[in-house]
Design brief:
The structure holds two protein chains of two kinds.
Chain A (H helix, E strand, L loop, with lengths): L5 E5 L3 H13 L3 E6 L2 H11 L3 E5 L8 H11 L4 E5 L4 H8 L5 E4 L4 H12 L2
Parallel strand pairs in A: 1-2, 1-3, 3-4, 4-5
Chain B lengths: L15 H4 L2 H15 L3 E5 L5 E5 L3 H6 L4 H15 L9 E4 L5 E9 L2 E11 L6 H11 L3 H9 L6 H83 L4 H26 L5 E3 H16 L5 E7 L3 E3 H22 L6 E9 L4 E8 L16 H13 L3 E6 L3 E8 L8
Parallel strand pairs in B: 7-9
Antiparallel strand pairs in B: 1-2, 1-5, 3-4, 4-5, 6-8, 9-10, 10-12, 11-12
Helix pairs in contact in B: 5-6, 7-8, 8-9, 8-10, 9-10, 10-11
The chains are: A alpha/beta, B alpha+beta.
């Protein structure tokens, strides 16, 4: 099942992005792309239609992850998993409006992330 | 001293003396008395304390007001005359209990009869001398002196008295309007002063709060830097226990990167705005630190040309890591055998906000046919990821008397966090 799931990683911090790419690849997922900005995420989501998006909230550029996810989901109902370094309730409340699959606080546990991803596609 | 009770105050706080210039009024009244011969009494209300008197006659000042019984009659007459004044411009003329004629008009501010403007101590017909002689006997006055004082009382025609009191009525209205204008000004001034005081208090609280947050943030940066140094020290200790050169190299590289990030935090808590750091100071210190880490005993000459550029933590961290990687590469590959060499770093910001960094060494440069895409190690991957992914910039390599690496990126990727 894992091999068929393509993931878009949206993460501005280079080493975190590299780690997620390597770790999720090792888990058998297909990484369709890795981008650092919300604008980039919207473009890749439109062009490559990943099965799921792993979205950091604070990003480089004008859009944050929540805004980018909101714009993506207005067009395509791609499942979103938010990742963030902050457990701020205001940000979490904003994120909930996008109806994400999960909201994970960094550092990301790959096993937990994998479970969340698989839960979307297990049914 | 005139004691003013709360009843004599407009809005419970302003006495007539607060609302009009009593010194200027005294001057005006004195001129009026000099020109017309009419006296002036300016009293607060309902206290009836005398605030200004001009031209007052001896018969009142030296006789009636010096005798308790006559003074009581005088006070009752004044009360009867003044207390019935209710509306602006209202005039009252009546004989006082001591045989003279008094006139008054009210000063009304914001509907409150706060003062009275009076004239009097006059006669409108020839006096009844017998009455005054009887008063002299009754109150124990020196009759000759008392009668002499009576002779000084002017006898005005009723028409003249009405004319003077009408003038005083108009003057009283002007005083009332002036008082009201000043009252509005005072209220506005008081409101503004309160607003300024409130804002000043709020500003002080805000400044205290900002200062507290700045202190906390500095402390946080400081602790982050210290923690990173502890991690770096632990890695150094662990590396010293291992004989493997490969392990030592990995640990040294990790230590250098942690120290680069630690230095960013140190520069942040030392910076004024806690948000950006000066790249000239940061990179200058960073490269000297790397010479200590990688180049002990080597003869490497460092040459820096770095503009005074402010950068956010989001730019400084990846830039520090890029320089860390490039320096490590130069020490490992360009000057591996301990030979002398030169490292040059140039950092400039163009008017369009793009930062150009040129890093070069005078080592052997890239091997012929070097393919950056084919590299399997972390070093080059990290450089590309940091420059192109994180800084959203461009990175180029070439040989020009050694390795030359050029990176261009914009410094407006992130908004300040603090």
């Amino acid at each position: 099942m894992n091999k068929t799931i393509s993931i878009l990683i949206v993460e501005d911090e280079a080493f975190s992005a590299m780690f997620l790419r390597d770790a999720l690849s090792c888990e058998g997922y297909q990484i369709c792309d890795t981008v650092a900005t919300g604008e980039g995420a919207i473009a890749i989501a439109e062009n490559k239609r990943p099965d799921i998006i792993l979205m950091d909230i604070r990003l480089a550029g004008e859009l944050d992850g929540i805004e980018a996810a909101s714009r993506i989901r207005q067009k395509n109902k791609i499942p979103i998993i938010f990742t963030t370094g902050h457990s701020d309730e205001k940000i979490a409340a904003r994120a909930r409006k996008v109806d994400p699959v999960a909201y994970l606080i960094k550092p990301i546990d790959i096993d937990e992330l994998s479970l969340k991803i698989n839960s979307v596609f297990s049914g | 001293m005139v004691v003013i009770d709360n009843e004599s105050l407009v809005d419970g706080k302003y006495a007539i003396g607060d609302l009009v210039d009593l010194v200027a009024l005294r001057d005006t009244f004195e001129k009026f008395t000099l020109a017309t011969g009419f006296t002036i009494g300016f009293l607060d209300h309902p206290g009836m304390n005398l605030l200004i008197t001009t031209g007052w006659r001896d018969i009142c000042t030296k006789f009636h007001r010096c005798c308790p019984v006559a003074l009581d009659i005088c006070a009752k007459s004044n009360f009867h005359l003044l207390d019935r004044l209710k509306t602006p411009g209202q005039l009252a003329i009546e004989a006082c209990g001591n045989g003279l004629v008094d006139c008054a008009t009210p000063i009304i501010i914001k509907g409150k009869h706060i003062a009275s403007l009076a004239t009097g101590q006059l006669l409108i017909e020839k006096p009844d001398h017998e009455r005054f002689r009887a008063q002299a006997g009754k109150y124990g006055f020196d009759e000759a002196e008392y009668m002499k004082a009576l002779e000084e009382i002017p006898i005005f025609s009723e028409e003249k008295v009405k004319s003077a009191t009408t003038f005083l009525g108009s003057l009283a209205n002007l005083i009332s309007e002036l008082g009201y204008t000043n009252l509005v000004k005072k209220d506005e001034t008081e409101r503004l002063e309160k607003e300024i005081a409130d804002r000043k208090r709020a500003e002080e609280m805000l400044n205290a709060s900002i200062k507290e947050k700045e202190t906390l943030l500095r402390e946080l940066y400081h602790r982050t830097k210290n923690n990173m140094q502890v991690i770096s020290s632990m890695l150094g200790l662990r590396a010293s226990l291992d004989d493997s050169e490969r392990v030592k190299t990995v640990f040294t590289d990790m230590t250098a990167k942690i120290k680069a990030m630690s230095l960013v935090h140190q520069k942040l808590y030392q910076s004024k705005d806690l948000s950006s750091i000066n790249l000239k100071e940061f990179i200058g210190e960073l490269v000297r630190m790397f010479v200590q880490i990688y180049g002990k005993g080597t003869k490497i000459k460092l040459d820096e040309e770095i503009d005074n550029i402010g950068a956010l933590i989001d730019t400084a961290i990846p830039l520090g890591l890029i320089i860390s990687e490039l320096m490590a590469n130069s020490f490992k590959h360009a000057f591996a055998d301990g030979r002398a060499g030169k490292i040059f770093i140039n950092l400039k910001k163009s008017p369009d906000g793009v930062i150009h960094m040129r890093f070069s060494d005078n080592g052997p440069g890239l091997a012929e046919g070097f393919d950056t895409n084919a590299q399997k190690g972390m070093g080059l991957k990290s450089l590309v990821a940091l420059a192109e992914h994180q800084l959203q910039g461009n990175i180029d390599y070439k040989n020009d008397g050694g390795l030359v690496c050029t990176i261009r990126f914009s410094d407006n990727l992130y908004k300040p966090r603090v």
